[in-house]
Structures are given as structure tokens and as C-alpha cells.
Amino acid sequence: MAFDVPTTRGAYTSLSDGWTYLNAGQRAQVPERVISAMTSSFRNAPKSLAGETGGGAHGQSRRSGASAAEELALSARRAFADITEGPVAGVVLGSSREVLIDQLCAAMSRRLSLGTNLVISRIGSQVVHAPLRRAANLYGARVRVAEADLASGSLPAWQFDEIVDAHTRLVVVPAADPYAGTVAPIAEISRRVHAMSPAWVLVDATDLAAYRHVSMSEMGADIVLVDASVWGGPEVSALVFRDPSMFARLASLNFDHNVRGVGRLEVSPVSPALLGGVSESVHHLASLDTRARGSRRHRIETAMPQVAEYLSDLTERLVAGLSNLPRVYIIGFDEENASESVASRRDYIPRVSFLVDGVPAETVVGRLLANGLVTSVVDVAQSPLLEAMGVGESEGAVGVGLQPFNTPHDVDQLVRAVASLG
């Protein structure tokens, strides 16, 4: 069945303002149902609720007199569990990825001491890398970096055999690079890491989850990090542990040392109003296939492959159009093998960064805005990969991020606007 773009577009009232949004990597558009849910949560969070008995895979009984805020937190945990295929009891909520990584490293302080190793990679975002490096400096762990192929932006798995050893305690790998769109071979990396060391593998699946279904078991991840804002949800993040018993191996950050489970890490409360939007944002992803039935997780597994296929076609169209422009260089795109490179974009998420020779990125973005197209100037300081590629020495890069509501017309309009720069 062809992906239903008109119905998807109808879920976003923001699309009626006349702009064409191609900046999902910087700020995703929010479905109307998510906005309504957060508005309702603001009003209802202080209330108490009547008790009831839940059902389903993640159902639980609710005690009489429980606050609506508690129920909103539980619904957010269930939603993140459905997104990652992890256990509800393993979901740690936080206001951002940076906050959660800080909390995890503090809880792992004894495991990240002198003589141990912490492995990060060249792809991903500084939002995750910065707190990891701070923690290594604070607790004494040595940081090792898995390098990316600077021509394609891919992350070879074989190198983890060389940089991971028995002293490695944590390996952090993004599932996809948010700027070049590279998808990492997470399952292969996890297999190699677990064969070489007792380290936990933490996968930042944030950018991948917006376009594909994520499975902790398939990736072999011990912990998955996700941020709902990237797929159009509120600014709420979660660390999902594959086994709740892992919390017992972490130092408690809670002043109450009798707290067990997620309470050992959750020391920064998240607004109940924001938590109320998480579940609706996941419902939105599950409803992208209007014909799918069954549990929310099953509907996500049905809908997201359709989203991935549709947006892969749009990305191919975008890359093919831009690659025909003589002054445009697409980051991670091999000009010598153009036809093969376009086809390989199916292994990427729909994020594209490009340069226009002799034209500053801000000028390009300004020209696109004049044509009703919203893109973004890539902040190279936030991308270890682009920084290593030397993009910072140019006049900046333009970032394009697609969402399921984008159309071939949007892509063609972008290519024509870039071509008008000469």
C-alpha cells in the first residue's frame, strides 16, 4: 500500500501557514493531537483520578486518588517502551538527552574510574558527546573514539575490535548521524563489543526512531536513548534499560537510598504537561498506517517501514537533483560514483547537508526562505563528523531534514531554488 501523504499532512495544522518545512533536523513540526494533549495535561496535572484496572501488554492497575501527573508519567514510560521495544520498568525520564547522560555517568562514576575506558564515535551530536567527555575528565576514564569514514560518513564496525577491551565500561554509539544521515551498523557493533568486554552498549536512537522502528533486542543494545522532540513530540527524553535489574549496579542519585528502579536516576522532574504529549506523539507514529491494527507497538512496526520507504524515495530525489548542480557538494556523497551513491541513500535517514561553492550557508538559507522553504544552517560545532570533514573551514553547510508530510513537490522546489544561486 502506498504511504498516505494527504492524511499525514492533515495531522499538522502548522502546514497551513504557507511555509514548506524542510528543517526536521533542527525543529520537527508537531502534530495537532500532540499540542492538544499537552494543553489538556496543563489543566489536568494537579487533579486526582479514580482507581481503575488496566489491561494490555503494558497495563497496570491505578490506585484511587493517584494524581494525574503520575498517570501522565506512566503513559510516557509506556510510550517510550513501545518506541524502543523495551520494558516499561526500565524507562528513565528526563528533560533532555544531555541531562540523562549526565545522570547516567554520575551513577556509573565508580565504573568510569582510572584504568577504565569509555568509547564514543565520530558520528552523532555534541549534545551526547559533551557530557560523556566531561564525565571522563571528572572520574578518570580514558576516552577512545571510533572514527568515521570521512568520505561517506559511515562508521565501520571492525574498528571496535581494536578500541574495545576488558577495561571498557561503556560504549556509546548513535544509531544515525543527524547531519549526514549515516546509519551505523549497530547490531554488528554490539556483537563485537559484547564479545570483547563486559561494557554496556548505549545507543542514541533519537534520529533513527523518527523514521524507522527501533528494537533494542535487534540492535543488541543494553541502553537506548531517545528524544521525543525529534519525531514531533514534546521536549522529553528517555533512557531505556533492557533489564531493570541493571539499576542495582548503579549508584543511586536519589537522596532516599531506599528507592529502587528508575527512581535511582530520576532526580530532575519533567513537566507533567510535556509528559502528556509523549504518548500522543507515539500514537501519531503508530497511526501513520491507517489500516494497521493491533497493539501500538505492532502498529509502529507496520507503519514505520512505509515511512522509511517513502522518505528514502524523497531523499534519492533530493540527492539526485542536488548532485546535478555543478556548485553543490553533498556531504557524505561520493561524486565519483554518483549513481551508486544515490542508491546507497536508502541506507541513510532522510537528512542531507550540502555546501554551495562560493556562497555562504546563511545566504543559501536566506534564498530558500525567500522562496517559502524553511531549512537550517548546520552548526558544525555540534557535529564531530562535519568538524572532522573540515566543513568548518568552508562558508557553512545547509541542513535539510524531511518529515513524513513532505512531498516530491517540496523537494523539486528546493532544488530549483538552490539552482537559482547560479
Q: Kindly provide the name of the CATH class of the largest domain.
A: Alpha Beta
Low-confidence segments: 50-57
Number of strands: 13
Which structural class should the secondary elements be placed in? alpha/beta
Figure out the total of helices.
Answer: 15
Number of domains: 2
InterPro entries: Aminotrans_V_dom, PyrdxlP-dep_Trfase, PyrdxlP-dep_Trfase_major, PyrdxlP-dep_Trfase_small
Domain Aminotransferase class V: 71-226
GO molecular function, one term: transaminase activity
Organism: Corynebacterium lactis RW2-5
For this entry, give a set of tags.
about 425 residues; alpha/beta; Aspartate Aminotransferase, domain 1; Aspartate Aminotransferase, domain 2; 2 domains; 7-stranded mixed sheet; 4-stranded antiparallel sheet; 15 helices; 13 strands; about 15% strand
Structure explained in plain terms:
- With 422 residues, the chain is of the alpha/beta class.
- It has two domains: 5-32 and 297-419, Aspartate Aminotransferase, domain 1 (Alpha-Beta Complex), CATH 3.90.1150; 38-284, Aspartate Aminotransferase, domain 2, CATH 3.40.640.
- The chain is built from 15 helices and 13 strands.
- The strands form three sheets. The protein has a seven-stranded mixed sheet, sandwiched between helices. Strands 9-10-13-12 form a four-stranded antiparallel sheet. Strands 1-11 form a two-stranded parallel ribbon.
- Strand 3 (117-121), helix 5 (126-139) and strand 4 form a beta-alpha-beta unit.
- Helix 4 (97-107) runs parallel beside helix 5 (126-139).
- It is globular and about 65 Å long.
- The two termini are 40 Å apart.
